[in-house]
Amino acid sequence: MEKEKVYEKLNGIFRDVLDNETIHLTDETTARDIAEWDSVSHIDLVVTIEEEFGVSFSMQEVNELKNVGEMVQLLQQKIG
Amino acid sequence: MLNVYRYEQIDVGMSCDFQVEVTQDAKKMFAEISGDENPLHTDKNYATSNGFQDEVVYGMLTVSFFSRLVGMYLPGKYCILQKIETTFTNPVYVGDELTVSGTVSKKHDSVRRIVIDGVVSNQRGEKVCKAKISVGCLK
Fold first, then answer.
1. Burial class, A40, CB count within 10 angstroms (exposed 0-12 / middle 13-18 / buried 19+)
2. pLDDT digit string (tens) for B31-75?
């Protein structure tokens, strides 16, 4: 899947899960940039991303992610 | 008794249940803790004139039994409650004998989350409350 398509889908997931229609993700986006992105909503995001993209992450993969760009890279690796 | 299930010991389909009677004392204590003195819960005339058979027990008191379900039994000690989405389907009255049950419907290994489908039924087998409960496992 092209990076732009991943971002389009991911942006929709973030807006839906965090209930914030103004979210616009970039490679550098982190939880510090979005007020609604707290520890529990982070878990909601990971679970929803797994379900929507049809992939599974390991705990280590999730824990090593530093920003949205790394999540997008990981998703591209998983879905090809 | 406190269960001590670790995340790896929990399987989809595992379930548990317990019974509890709703007492006048519990209802009174909940009123004091919450400060909710709405007449639906405190005035029998008001409750019956609105179609209920008696003062209605607080829905949040019924939901509180889900705290016991996950904090004591499934998974028990290592539980950290994250989210409850609940629906109230029938009224509860003082004296009702409730059965509180939960069944594991999902596990999310990457974030160590367990999703439990919770149900509370009364002594007539009527479902009074259902919930989707998300809990983490500390170990």
1. middle
2. 999 999 999 999 999 999 999 999 999 999 999 999 999 999 999
pLDDT-derived band at A70 (thresholds 50, 70, 90) equals very high
Interacting residues of B15 by C-beta distance below 8 A, sequence separation 6+: B74, B101, B102, B103, B104
pLDDT in the model for residue A80: 76
Please check whether residue A52 touches B, CB under 8 A: no
Q: What global pTM score does this model have? A: 0.90
What is the ipTM metric for this complex?
A: 0.86
**Residue B64 is encoded by which pair of tokens?**
């509180």
How many CB atoms lie under 10 A from the CB of residue B125?
7
Q: Cβ A47–B82 below 8 Å, yes or no?
A: no
Cross-chain residue pair A59–B108, CB shorter than 8 Å? no
The residues with which A61 forms a beta bridge, in sequence order, are none
For residue B37, give every residue at least 6 positions away whose Cβ sits within 8 Å of its Cβ, in sequence order, or none.
B31
DSSP codes of every residue in A2-20: -HHHHHHHHHHHHHHHHT-
Contact flag B112-A59 (C-beta cutoff 8 Å): yes
Q: Residue A15: which of B123, A29, A2, A3 has the closest Cα?
A: A29
